[in-house]
Amino acid sequence: MAEKEFDTDGFDFSEVEKRLGVSRRTFLTFCMGVAGSLGLSTKSAFAMAKAIAEPKMRPPVIWLHGQECTGPTESLLRSEQPSLAHLILDMISLDYHQTLDAGAGHKVEEIKKKSMEANKGKYLLVVEGAIPVNDGGIYCKIAGETMLDLTREAAEHAAAIVAFGSCASWGGVQSASPNPTGAKGAQAVLPGKPVVNIPGCPPNPANFLGTVLYFVTFGKLPPLDAQNRPKWAYGRLIHENCYRRPHFDAGRFATEFGDEGHKLGHCLYKLGCKGPETYNNCPSLEFNNVGGGVWPIGVGHPCFGCSEEGIGFNKPMFALADVKTHTPPNNFPDIDDRQSSSGVSPGAAALGGAAVGAVVGATLVAAKKLSASDDSSNSDDQNS
């Protein structure tokens, strides 16, 4: 793609090239990809690029940790599109993060309070981990203060609040019965405050980065669903986009780990896969930027519904999911009867599988061409 095809109204991206160490083309291609995943126009992609290019627009971020395993931060550390370093240095001003702060003790806490005071109504609050409320919240303390009080204090003048991960969104494993600490998600302890939930265990870093980019660009959070999750990331059931879906429709299931169906990549519904009742974009994003099916279903394990309140940490892992949607034809026999039924002919199943395979194959070929083109472009830029 020729660089002149990017109409950026004459905006100078030379400083971005120096900071990021990537070509103007690579940078703009990334912004267009993020905008595309958000369902936004090319014009919005350029707006994102300009927002990143102008450091004065970087929002201060206060990042709190409650009851959790630090999985959300760990997933963010492995992000490559962009890397965590680029996120911190070029998109946001990470003023306080208990895991990543170079300093410690009273000095760090003082910096946090000064940043919150100086940036009232401007900073982004990110909550990671559940917040215990029983006995006054004494089960999680930082610098002598409870997580409950710290969250309420930081939320008071935040421009936006992001609950990153299932623990911060719903309470996570800590909130499972009997929940002795009274663990809750951020929105439960901040009634009346707008909280965007980005659940997952761990959550995909791309869902966080896309949300932050939207906020940096437009000064507001993206459209949310009824659970306060970004629609662009949690608008579709995993079941709808899963590449094992043709096996579900054809009645081909793995019934035990390691059986013939499991080895052949058949549907994992009978092993307790919660994909039919879980909203997330795992099939399209995968994890760790390495490709090759790196996500639970891709490596042969059922989805356990981590991004759904009341499912991931409350419903038995191998219990059957509630199937929320079907695709035509809708006259399949019941799940229990399907495997021994002749309701779907081998020819019809093969035809359906071939059609889906053609679409998936075409998508993979296009992605490989784009990757090869980008590598070639980078090489050309370096040699020029």
Verbal overview:
- The chain is of the alpha/beta class.
- It has 3 domains: 1-57; 58-234, Rossmann fold (3-Layer(aba) Sandwich), CATH 3.40.50; 238-344, Cytochrome-c3 hydrogenase, C-terminal domain (Cytochrome-c3 Hydrogenase, Chain A, domain 2).
- Helix content is 41%, strand content 9%.
- The protein is built from 17 helices and 9 strands.
- The strands form 3 sheets. It has a 5-stranded parallel sheet, sandwiched between helices. Strands 4-8 form a two-stranded antiparallel sheet.
- The radius of gyration is 23 Å and the shape is globular.
- The two termini are 16 Å apart.
How many structurally independent domains? 3
Can you count the helices?
Answer: 17
**CATH architectural arrangement of the largest domain:** 3-Layer(aba) Sandwich
CA distance, first residue to last residue:
16 Å
Tell me the radius of gyration: 23 Å
- Secondary-structure element order, as H and E? HHHEHHEHEEEEHEHEHEHHHHHHHH
The percent range for strand residues is 5-15%
Contiguous runs where pLDDT drops below 50 for at least 5 residues: 1-7, 341-374
CATH topology description of the largest domain: Rossmann fold
User: In the CATH hierarchy, what is the class of the largest domain?
Assistant: Alpha Beta
E-strand count: 9
Task: Strand order, main sheet: write it out.
Answer: 2-1-3-7-9
User: What is the multimeric organization of the chains shown?
Assistant: single chain
Structural class category: alpha/beta
Overall geometry: globular
